[in-house]
Amino acid sequence: MAVLETILLPREEEQQYSTDNCTAVTPECPVELTIYGYYPSLGANAFFLAIFAICFIANTVLGLRFKTWTYLIAMFFGTLAEAIGYAGRIMLHDNPWSSNGFQIQICCLIIAPAFIAAGVYLTLKHIVLEIGSDFSRLPPRYYTWIFILCDIFSLVLQGAGGGIAATADTDPSLQDTGTNLMIAGIIWQVVTLFIFGGLVGDYAYRAYKRRNNLSASAVKLLGTRRFKFFAASLILAFLTIFARCVYRIAEMVGGWQNDIMQSEPDFIALDSVMILIATLCLTIFHPGIAFPEMQMHGIKNMTGAVNAEKVADPENTPAESTVAVNKGGYFGAA
After folding, report:
1. pTM of the predicted structure, to 2 decimals
2. Local structure of 8: helix, strand or coil
3. SS3 state of residue 223
4. I need a labelling partner for 82 at 20 to 30 A (CA). Which of 30, 46, 117, 271 fits?
5. Tens digit of each residue's pLDDT (9 = 90 or more) over 158-175
6. How far from 10 is each of 42, 56, 111, CA to CA, in Å?
7. DSSP readout, 59-127?
């Protein structure tokens, strides 16, 4: 057995109960001695599996349709990992001692939000390019590289930690190493999100303070309903991912089998629902639909200069729009 067999009991209880050979719930191996201490809800986990699977399909279709390649990669792996993670929790409903179910859900549900957060990070560069880079403290391209690299580092820490903890067998020190790596990865993600939020807030303040210097196209964009919905969806996605990460830190620092970890309502409210809201925001208000201007960023002309053409604005009349066909996508040159 994996980490499920290494239950952190007081020494006298450890001597009284041996869970090394537990493979199913029995009088000798009650569900209370598993890491989570409960049967994960079949209905709740099936619901989240279904919704994330739908979002996976939707993001794949939209990403191919609008050629948002890097955004597609982030949301593809994020939604896929969430769906697989809830399949693992359904396995735990059938058998709370399932080592495979535990490994699947701990690894997938730990790393999935980092991919979804990448979807948020990828948009800032393009918003800055459209509204005005003069208000930014950093060159627009730096936003993508800095935050995606930070996100990758977080993924490596969380993925390695989850893998080690899930396969630690009966080695408590190895299990602790995995747990500490997961905590470090989530803390790194929180710090990255905090810095990202600070830079976004700073940019918004500087742009608002110098709003009289905004270009006509930027003023027009900021006044559209679709961009307002797009911006609101990004803010909500950011806040829910941040809340989930804070919850996960609190859950992990208490050690295996702590009260927070053994409360499924807390997990559903502060992890499942938070990431679902973020995913729905980034799917329903997909940049290919809500922010089509992004499609032209990264397309260069023969001299290497960025093509300044705008794509069609669905809120304008044909006479007011300059239509440009995007055949290559925009994120490939991020």
Report:
1. 0.85
2. coil
3. coil
4. 30
5. 999 988 887 776 677 888
6. 31, 43, 31
7. HHHHHHHHT-HHHHHHHHHHHHHHHHHHHHHHHHHH-TT-HHHHHHHHHHHHHHHHHHHHHHHHHHHHH
